[in-house]
Write a structure and sequence with these properties.
Number of strands: 0
Number of helices: 6
Distance between the termini: 32 Å
Order of helices and strands: HHHHHH
Strand content: under 5%
Helix content: 55-70%
Length: 140
């Protein structure tokens, strides 16, 4: 049974929107914290915030995933105090070098979520990434 591009896009769009919401939530949280709240914040820190805002607002850029990966890795390297606020989903979503900062258990968790989504897509079943994530995390 094949899936039309409209049906496939439904699954991918919800997945993408969920991660964009997590990215925006992360940005909103860190804007309330040092070094970004300091009156003498460095130009580098302010440029990082601008880059994150641009990432969240310019999702059609051809290098969007690469920029996201670079910025997530920069959180790890330059702002380790923000790591508790960084949704692990974003490391998985942007992939690449970000995966180096995830233990095997987390990688397995997100692989399972992707497999659930793919199965639902192939079988044309309703699927909510947010619901599946919350259920698997024990949030329901």
């Amino acid at each position: 049974m094949s899936i039309s591009s409209t049906e496939e896009n439904q699954y991918d769009k919800e997945y993408y929107i969920c991660h964009l919401e997590l990215l925006n939530a992360f940005i909103a949280q860190i804007k309330q914290l040092p070094p970004f709240t300091l009156t003498d914040a460095s130009e580098d820190d302010l440029a990082f915030l601008v880059a994150l805002d641009e990432l969240a607002s310019n999702t059609q850029a051809t290098d969007w995933l690469d920029k996201g990966q670079t910025l997530m890795c920069r959180v790890v390297g330059s702002y380790p105090h923000l790591m508790p606020l960084l949704y692990r989903d974003l490391l998985w979503f942007f992939g690449g070098d970000c995966l180096h900062y995830m233990p095997d258990e987390e990688i397995h968790f997100f692989q399972q979520l992707d497999e659930l989504r793919e199965t639902a897509k192939q079988e044309q079943l309703p699927f909510s990434y947010k619901e599946a994530r919350a259920t698997r995390m024990g949030l329901h």
